[in-house]
Automatic annotation (TrEMBL):
It is an enzyme of class 2 (transferase). Keywords: DNA-binding, Glycosyltransferase, Transcription, Transcription regulation, Transferase. Homodimer. InterPro entries: PRTase-like, PRTase_dom, Pur/Pyrimidine_PRTase, PuR_N, PurR_Bsub, WH-like_DNA-bd_sf, WH_DNA-bd_sf. Residues 110-238 form the Phosphoribosyltransferase domain. The keyword Oxidoreductase does not apply. PANTHER family: HYPOXANTHINE/GUANINE PHOSPHORIBOSYLTRANSFERASE, PUR OPERON REPRESSOR. Residues 5-74 form the Bacterial purine repressor N-terminal domain. SUPFAM superfamilies: PRTase-like (SSF53271), Winged helix' DNA-binding domain (SSF46785). This is Pur operon repressor.
Length: 275
């Protein structure tokens, strides 16, 4: 790359870091990239670090030693996360989201990349300090959220299938009971999708009693994997604690009431803000 003015170099370095979260970047990478001395690069990184941390957008970690460098850790302030949760809640409370049977239409929100990216940043804040190898979700509506989270954590995404595909190769399949319908379903995961003994972050768009998430936890046991955490975009608050199949999870919004007759929906920020 041709030599840049310092102002241009700062902009380019910032973009380079933002596109590589949770990745150690040696100082020599920047020094060679911009034809600059390491001392100049260190001064630039100190400026970027200050701007990042004052703006509440994350942390720039400095790692010492021969294999050291810098690592960008995306983080969202509590105030920013709460504003997101309130905005999400307001959108979910629109009366025309109520479907027959008391279901809630959410696909349009899950299809908004900007919205999912913000949710992914919040999950990256909640789980960023944990030792995680992969992000997992079950097809299909949780996929945008899982990829947004994986991008912020710089982790691969593993998809659990409801129906086994021949193109997946050999797979492990289990039956699980849906907590919301008490009916039996099947989910499967390709043996090549994930190494044994992986540490997994489970992400899903909606959780009622937790049957689907518990199914993924049971499936992971077949891979001798460990559940590092569970993040859900929206949880149902209408489930009794006795019916809830899991208690250790992070939610960004909680659906507290749906009245199909009056077309009233009530949503509030999730338990992320109680942690």
């Amino acid at each position: 790359m041709k030599k840049l003015k310092r102002s241009a170099r700062l902009v380019e370095m910032t973009q380079y870091l933002l596109s590589r979260p949770h990745t150690v970047i040696p100082l020599t990478t920047f020094a060679e990239r911009y034809g600059a001395a390491k001392s100049s690069i260190s001064e630039d990184l100190a400026i970027i670090k200050e701007v990042f941390e004052e703006g509440g957008s994350g942390e720039l970690q400095t790692l010492a030693g021969a294999a050291g460098g810098v690592k960008w850790i995306p983080k969202v302030s509590r105030e920013h996360a709460l504003a997101f949760a309130e905005r999400l809640s307001n959108q979910l409370e629109q009366p025309d989201r109520i479907l027959p049977g008391g279901y809630l239409y959410m696909s349009d929100l899950l299809g908004q990349p900007a919205l999912m990216n913000e949710a992914g940043k919040i999950f990256a804040t909640a789980f960023g300090n944990m030792d995680i190898d992969v992000v997992m979700t079950v097809e299909t509506k949780g996929i945008p959220l899982a990829y947004a989270t994986g991008a912020q954590l710089n982790l691969p995404v593993v998809l659990v299938r409801r129906d086994h595909q021949a193109t997946e190769g050999s797979a492990v399949s289990i039956n699980y009971v849906s907590g919301s319908h008490k009916s039996l379903h099947t989910m499967s995961l390709s043996r090549r999708a994930m190494r044994e003994h992986s540490r997994v972050l489970i992400v899903d768009d909606f959780m009622k009693a937790g049957g689907t998430v518990q199914g993924m936890i049971d499936l992971l046991a077949e891979f001798n994997a460990t559940v590092a955490g569970v993040g859900v975009l929206v949880e149902s608050g209408s489930v009794d604690s006795e019916e809830r199949l899991l208690t250790d999870y992070v939610s960004l919004a909680q659906l507290t009431a749906v009245d199909a007759k009056s077309r009233h929906i009530s949503v509030k920020p999730g338990n992320y803000f109680d942690l």
